[in-house]
Amino acid sequence: MRTVSLIFIVFGFNTFATDDPNCSENDVLGGKLFELEMSTSFHGRYHFKFCSGEVSYLLSEFIEPISTSRPLKSTIKHESRAKLDPDTAMYLKNLYRAVQATLQEDNVRGLDGATWCFKPKNGQGYSKTCVWEPRASTQERNLQSLVFLGDKLYEISNFKSLEK
Fold first, then answer.
1. What is the C-alpha to C-alpha distance for residues 95 and 147, in angstroms, rounded to an integer?
2. Rounded CA gap, 23 and 146, in Å?
3. pTM (2 decimals)?
4. What is the C-alpha separation between 31 and 121, in angstroms, rounded?
5. What is the pLDDT of residues 67-95, one digit of tens each?
6. Could you give the angle at which helices 144-157 and 86-102 cross, rounded to 10 degrees?
7. For residues 149 and 99, is the Cβ–Cβ distance under 8 A?
8. Measured between alpha carbons, how far is 15 from 121 in angstroms, rounded to an integer?
9. What is the DSSP string of 74-138?
10. pLDDT by residue (tens digit) across 110-159?
């Protein structure tokens, strides 16, 4: 009887373990595949993490400023966790690969706008590339894949508004 109970307990814990996203930074074949941060001038910051495994997840947060008066700055953090179906996970992986193949830092800067930082897995570590306002001269700067990826992550996260 004890053995049967022990087997049910082990299988029960194993079932629940798949509900946690695999966001390991050390997992070569899975784990956190990439992050994308979108910092807007005055409208907050979005942070997306794509975690790949048997089941893939998108973990998202939006840091919303509610008071910008100095010296105190107040914010609210909104979080989202989406369990992805296999087709959506593959679509995001394909966009991730396209961004990796085309993204380059450029010297375009401005006084206002968003800065997007893409942090993909690169072997055992991560690289980071930041661009200012990827929606400005998107085609000329070859940023279409990055914008598609950002829009899809935003859509999946189900946040209410994004500065476009």
1. 10
2. 21
3. 0.77
4. 9
5. 666 665 677 778 889 999 999 999 999 99
6. 150
7. yes
8. 28
9. EEEEEEEEEEEPHHHHHHHHHHHHHHHHH--------SSS-EEEEEEEETTEE--EEEE-TTTTT
10. 777 899 999 998 777 788 999 999 998 899 999 999 999 999 999 999 87
